């Protein structure tokens, strides 16, 4: 789960990482009540990236200007996300920008700290164009991260004297946040030099959903669509796409390949719904109701390979509530014969071959 | 031969008294797997499906000679269970559990490496050597013994492709599900290396998906050192960036992890990549 900048900064502050003085507002009038030194910077609190380019970050020299800019940003739509909150912070005079993060290196199967003297910009871009400007230190899972790792990285980034020692303190704190908060990513970009000090001007923190149970009191930030929320509450995995063919399958890999198959034959998947490994009649009934609630669906494709999932359980759900939307069912595997018999009684044909079924679906979606 | 599991494998089922543990212990026994012990702390002395239950892995090892484990323990207790199995040098340790925190998986994998033990998963269907041994949850009736080694990041898609191979008369040496999480034990590269050294395996099938760069890493290895034919399939060509497609590890982040990059890397390594899972069997046949 992604945290907003202001939420991440609250955690940073708790761990002793220096951040600007700031306050969060939800209405432009609230600018009046804040006691900050002007000029201030107003930053849209959204979870999507690229808010600066989208006009979600503005400077203001006076309270009147801040109020006016707040009015412009609040309510703005940034890549589909509505701006509900602004972080107002004292503007600072930055003389240099660095990058520092801890994240999971999937390939190395370890945590890695990443640092760069080319901060303030997209780090992926830096890694691609000037990889020599990136310093990495992998964290040994047995011995952990220690100040000497930070000193070595700090020197590589060019820090000396008091700034080097500050860098070591910040990097150590960031490593604790990473491990104690189960972070997938904790990032400071830019880590700015302001006068004689280092300051975390921005903050990003993504916490592993699987570890949420270990962290009570975390904010709930997910920007789920209505259907995504409905699926989640039923324990189903759902992703919204922009086509017109609704898709249900069992198993993440199989559903992904089903989307690809529909696209391969010229169709456009509308959604991804994985009913899971051991889907029951009840799961399947809910799944059908969710995918078909999306407007503009022209066909439904159900692709089931029964393993732990039993074809007769799936067939019962389909036969009990056959949708009005044109539907194609592919059913094979455990209890296939029983499943097909149930569907046949309800006048529904079931395919065995997935490609044949996918082609039929695409044809149905186009034929209206 | 086959890889990782065979007739000598003696399996411990951790959390055998739970619903999933008992259900799949019975299916493994039906398959012919030597399930010789179960464990659930506090339930030592009981038995499930005729299999004795122990309180600790050490006791199960001492009394039954188990040498491999299958873990159904819920996510919160899975790290403890896996570390206990690794400490007893069980090999492989197959983790079926979904939803284990990634920081826990990092510790499990590091401990396994230090002990020289193979961890398979988490969040996978396990490993099956047809006619010999199955550890995990793959359906029993799909397989035939033969010369195709299959390695995949998914469950159901693996079953789909195995069924296609079997239908086409192409049996399998071993089918291995690596798991859908971002951090897993045995990787594509390790699995391909095991298959490359297995005299029974004549062709290798790799079933990948979006997210991470494990397929690309395997592609470099294949190019440098694999002489057996390799057929690939990658799921998620139409997946949008930034969305987790069901598996915790199936997500395109930035420019990393796209199906297109994986397909390109595999093709550059001489792997025959097919467009649809149903085409795997015919291409394998054409290369044998």
Could you please describe the fold and organization of this structure?
- The complex is a heterodimer of chains A (368) and B (288).
- Chain A has 368 residues and is of the alpha+beta class.
- Chain A has 11 helices and 19 strands.
- In chain A, α4 packs across α5 (161-180), α8 packs across α9 (311-320) and α9 (311-320) runs parallel beside α10 (336-345).
- Chain A is elongated and about 80 Å long.
- The two termini of chain A are 41 Å apart.
- The relative contact order of chain A is 0.10.
- Chain B has 288 residues and is α/β, with parallel strands linked by helices.
- Helices cover 35% and strands 22% of the residues of chain B.
- Chain B contains 9 helices and 14 strands.
- Chain B has helices at residues 19-31, 57-64, 75-87, 102-115, 156-167, 188-197, 214-225, 259-268, 280-287, and strands spanning 10-14, 34-39, 47-48, 51-54, 68-71, 93-95, 119-120, 126-129, 133-136, 145-152, 172-177, 203-209, 230-235, 272-273.
- In chain B, the strands form 2 sheets. In chain B, strands 3-4-2-1-5-6-7 form a 7-stranded mixed beta sheet, with helices on both faces. In chain B, strands 9-8-11-10-12-13-14 form a 7-stranded mixed beta sheet, sandwiched between helices.
- In chain B, β6, α4 (102-115) and β7 (119-120) form a beta-alpha-beta unit.
- In chain B, α3 (75-87) runs parallel beside α4 (102-115) and α7 packs parallel to α8.
- The model of chain B has no long low-confidence stretch (mean pLDDT 96).
- At the A-B interface, α7 of A face α4 and α5 of B.
């Amino acid at each position: 789960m992604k945290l907003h900048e202001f939420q991440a900064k609250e955690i940073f502050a708790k761990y002793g990482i220096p951040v600007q003085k700031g306050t969060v507002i939800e209405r432009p009038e609230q600018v009046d009540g804040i006691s900050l030194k002007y000029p201030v910077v107003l930053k849209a609190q959204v979870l999507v990236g690229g808010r600066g380019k989208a006009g979600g970050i503005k400077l203001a020299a006076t309270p009147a200007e801040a109020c006016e800019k707040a009015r412009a940003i609040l309510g703005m739509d940034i890549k589909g996300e509505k701006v509900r909150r602004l972080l107002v912070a004292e503007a600072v005079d930055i003389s240099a920008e660095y990058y520092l993060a801890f994240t999971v290196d999937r390939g190395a199967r370890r945590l890695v700290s990443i640092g760069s003297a080319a901060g303030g910009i997209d780090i992926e871009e830096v890694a691609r164009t000037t990889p020599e400007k990136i310093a990495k230190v992998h964290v040994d899972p047995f011995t952990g991260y220690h100040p000497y790792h930070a000193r070595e990285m700090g020197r590589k980034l060019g820090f000396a004297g008091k700034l080097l020692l500050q860098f070591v303190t910040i990097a150590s704190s960031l490593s604790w946040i990473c491990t104690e908060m189960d972070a997938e990513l904790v990032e400071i970009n830019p880590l700015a030099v302001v006068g004689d000090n280092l300051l975390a001007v921005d903050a990003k923190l993504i916490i592993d959903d699987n570890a949420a149970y270990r962290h009570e009191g975390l904010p709930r930030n997910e920007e789920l669509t209505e259907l995504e929320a409905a699926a989640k509450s039923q324990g189903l995995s759902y992703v919204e796409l922009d086509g017109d063919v609704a898709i249900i399958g069992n198993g993440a890999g199989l559903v992904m390949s089903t989307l690809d198959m529909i696209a391969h034959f010229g169709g456009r998947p509308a959604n991804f719904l994985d009913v899971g490994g051991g889907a029951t009649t009840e799961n399947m009934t809910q799944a059908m109701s969710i995918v078909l609630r999306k407007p503009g669906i022209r066909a439904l494709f159900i692709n089931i390979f029964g393993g732990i999932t039993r074809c007769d359980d799936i067939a019962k759900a389909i036969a009990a509530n056959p949708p009005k939307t044109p539907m194609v069912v592919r059913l094979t595997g455990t209890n296939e014969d029983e499943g097909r018999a149930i569907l046949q009684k309800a006048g529904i044909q079931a395919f065995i071959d997935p490609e044949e079924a996918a082609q039929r679906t695409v044809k149905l979606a186009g034929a209206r | 031969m086959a890889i990782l599991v065979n007739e000598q494998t003696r399996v411990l089922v951790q959390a055998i008294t739970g619903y999933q543990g008992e259900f799949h212990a019975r299916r493994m026994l039906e398959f012919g797997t030597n399930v010789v012990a179960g464990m659930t702390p506090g339930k030592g002395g009981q038995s499930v499906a005729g299999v004795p239950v122990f309180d600790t892995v050490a006791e199960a090892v001492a009394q039954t000679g188990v040498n491999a484990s299958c873990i159904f323990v819920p996510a919160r207790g899975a790290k403890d269970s896996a570390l206990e199995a690794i400490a007893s040098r069980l090999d492989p340790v197959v983790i079926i559990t979904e939803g284990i925190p990634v920081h826990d998986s990092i510790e499990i994998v590091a401990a396994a490496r230090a002990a020289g033990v193979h961890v398979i998963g988490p969040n996978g269907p396990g490993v099956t050597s047809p006619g010999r041994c199955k550890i995990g949850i793959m359906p029993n009736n799909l397989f035939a013994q033969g010369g195709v080694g299959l390695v995949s990041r998914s469950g159901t898609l693996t079953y789909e492709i195995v069924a296609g191979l079997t239908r086409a008369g192409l049996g399998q040496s071993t089918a291995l599900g690596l798991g859908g999480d971002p951090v897993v034990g045995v990787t594509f590269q390790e699995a391909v290396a095991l298959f490359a050294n297995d005299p029974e395996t004549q062709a290798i099938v790799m079933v990948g998906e979006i997210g991470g760069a494990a397929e690309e890493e395997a592609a470099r290895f294949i190019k440098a050192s694999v002489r057996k034919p390799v057929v690939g399939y990658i799921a998620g060509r139409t997946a949008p960036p930034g969305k987790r497609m069901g598996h915790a590890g199936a997500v395109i982040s930035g420019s990393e992890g796209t199906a297109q990059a994986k397909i390109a890397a595999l093709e550059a390594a001489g792997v025959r990549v097919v467009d649809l899972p149903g085409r795997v069997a015919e291409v394998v046949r054409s290369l044998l």
